[in-house]
Amino acid sequence: MKLRRRETVSLQLVTALGAAALLFPFLWMISASLQTLQEVEAFPPIWIPEVPQWTNYVEAVVNYNIGRALLNSAIVTTVSVVGQLTVCSLGAYAFSRLRFPGRDAIFLLFLATMMIPHYVTIIPLYTMVWSAGLIDTYTALIFPGLFSPFGTFLLRQFFNQIPISLDEATLIDGGNHWHIYLYVIMPLSRAGLGALGIFSFLGIWNTLFWPVLVINSKELFTLPLALAMAQGQFITLIHIQMAGSVIACVPVILVFLMLQKQFISSIALSGMKQ
Amino acid sequence: MATGQKAQTISAPWSILRPKGRRHKDLYVALLFLAPSLLGLFLLQVLPIGTALVLGVSEWNIIDPIKFVGLSNFVEVATDATFYHTLENTLYLTVGLEVLNTLLGLCAALLLKNAMRGIDLYRTIYFLPLITTWAAVAIAWRYMYSLEGPINALLGPLGIDPIPWLSRPEWAMPAVIITITWKTLSWKTIILLAGLQSIPNEFYEASSIDGASRWQQFWKITLPLLSPAMFFALIIGIINTLQLFDPIFIMTDGGPADSTRTLSYYIYTRGFQNLRMGYAAALSWVLFAIILLFTLIQWVLQKRWVFYQ
């Protein structure tokens, strides 16, 4: 469709207005994180701080547990994402490339569990973790992220698009399935691994519900949990909390900027995930 | 094939158990590749789902021994006034969110479809709320909603008196819906944008030669051809909405006066604040049944409005 010039200008204007509205909470967050307590409590609100208070960030990291929480989130997310990519790609390889009895039935079971809401499994999972004495441990934070039926499904779809003749060539050259997995399938599935990587990264980095249940001590708080708990404890220190919120958002925005294309095309492909 | 037969002739008597033929040739390799996934599936899905079935017919506060109580949890659900109240809240939230998200998501998709200057930057900005941490942005929204906060300050010049957003039952749910719309809108946009981009341009060209207006094109071409994507986004969107936790936990904790306590948040309340694991499990099965029912109803109704090419 060819647009006339006047239309292009008005389209651009509306798009820019929408962008401004969507950006507004972020801008307020950043502005509030740089204000003094007095400024942030002022009415009418102060939009731009007189002197940016960068020390708010230092204070959040050092005195309000955000530094430790950042470290915990980094550890939990890194281990979970690497683990999930490994477990899911191995499983997806079996479903895509191997023949064995009950393959389709097992795959169907994987798909069926995706229909069960999170709320059904999280109560028993909590009781399991509690009975195993794993409350307040890194293990409790990490192990639910190591496996995902959705991830297995997503990677299988990508693996299925790789021509089987490449496997056969590897077999003729004396390779085995391990070689095919490592040197053929994985290198050719960067888009799929990137997509699952960003889904699981965002999911685990942002998750609040599970840490709320299994973590009690401050030393093990992840960032979302630290932010949520700080809200209860230091309810009046808005500027410090906003500094913590900005710190939590920066890594996801950076990862998103790197992998934006994979992220958007995979949502369009699979419908995951809010 | 030849090597497989050779192996069989020299192997022990129990080799009769070994499956024959091409279909089975990869069984052992497959077990190795699948072992971590199967362990995960068992520990994180099969075992919890089985346990949830048991919990649903039990009374358990985690500390005392578990007690079998039959269907009494479900009988209690059926007569629980708070349950019906949370069901109403859930319906309010789901309908409000779907209407706003679909309308605004469609507008955003129609805007972002165009090749204009700076489109990559616009797209990035539109998708930012979706990816950022719920806990972080929900806290920001909570302060933005305060009586003397930035939102009321922006509404003031328009002649609107300060609104007690999160402190009054009648305003809390609209406030929560606005925030969740802001956060999840671009998920809808991505799905609808993909749908828009799959509509062949020839349809528009041919119809403009026939003299169709933009408005006619939108109703006769865009909407019908977009309906499969809208249907898909509706189903997944509702499933996601029914399971929301973070914004309610941060912004309202279900209040004031239970006005934002959704069914999923009620499950959390019963299970983890009142330590009634059995009752919470029963409620979670009710949630599952509702999701299933919603999806089935939409599946049946789709014949009336979804148009497949």
TrEMBL record, chain A:
Statement: the UniProt record of this protein carries the keyword Transmembrane helix: yes
Gene Ontology process terms (BP): transmembrane transport
Signal peptide: none
Pfam families (UniProt xref): BPD_transp_1 (PF00528)
Subcellular location: Cell membrane
ABC transmembrane type-1 domain span: 70-259
Gene3D superfamilies recorded: MetI-like
Protein's membrane topology: Multi-pass membrane protein
PROSITE patterns: ABC_TM1 (PS50928)
InterPro entries named in the record: MetI-like (IPR000515), MetI-like_sf (IPR035906)
Keywords: Cell membrane, Membrane, Transmembrane, Transmembrane helix, Transport
Transmembrane segments: 66-93, 105-126, 138-155, 193-214, 234-259
Chain coiled-coil ranges: none
GO cellular component: plasma membrane
Family affiliation: Belongs to the binding-protein-dependent transport system permease family.
Entry-linked PANTHER family: ABC TRANSPORTER PERMEASE PROTEIN MG189-RELATED, ABC TRANSPORTER PERMEASE PROTEIN MG189-RELATED-RELATED
UniProt protein name: Carbohydrate ABC transporter permease
TrEMBL record, chain B:
InterPro entries: ABC_transporter_permease, MetI-like, MetI-like_sf
Gene Ontology biological process: transmembrane transport
Domain ABC transmembrane type-1: 87-298
Membrane topology note: Multi-pass membrane protein
Ranges annotated as spanning the membrane: 27-47, 91-112, 124-144, 171-196, 217-239, 279-301
Keyword presence, Cell membrane: yes
SUPFAM superfamilies for the chain: MetI-like
Record PROSITE patterns: ABC_TM1
CDD domains: TM_PBP2 (cd06261)
Keywords: Cell membrane, Membrane, Transmembrane, Transmembrane helix, Transport
UniProt key word Cell membrane: yes
A Pfam family annotated for this UniProt entry: BPD_transp_1
An example Gene Ontology CC term for this record: plasma membrane
Family that this chain belongs to: Belongs to the binding-protein-dependent transport system permease family.
Name the UniProt record assigns to this protein: Sugar ABC transporter permease
